[in-house]
Amino acid sequence: MPVVASHADVVDDWEGLLTAARNQVERLPDLGRHISALELVLGQTKAMKAQQDSFTASRQEATQELKKLVAEGRDLAIRLRGAVKAEIGPRSERLVEFNMKPIRKRPRKTKAEKPPEVTTPTAPSAGTQVPKPQDSKT
What we know:
Blueprint: H1 7-23, H2 32-88
Helix pairs in contact: 1-2
């Protein structure tokens, strides 16, 4: 039995098998009931595939319509927020109820204390060795 992956390949395989079986029905009379059963399932499979394709098209149309509605809803939400802000004022704390930030004064920055200055030692400390200058003769 061949391994068949896609739906179209399955249907083609079954149709080819049915054609070959119908041509041999006189030599093999017991095939009649098997042919009838496969023909019935083949017809049901084709009908179900057509229904599935219809659902796919409907789903795509629904997705496109949903995208349009979301875009329109976003525009309307922007307009509503603008109207609310115009009505109650851009500084009102009630804007928080509408998921908007009111205009607030910035807090004053306090003067930061200066960090302590780092002093560098001028004389070597007692445990460190200072290299001796070498005499250079020219």
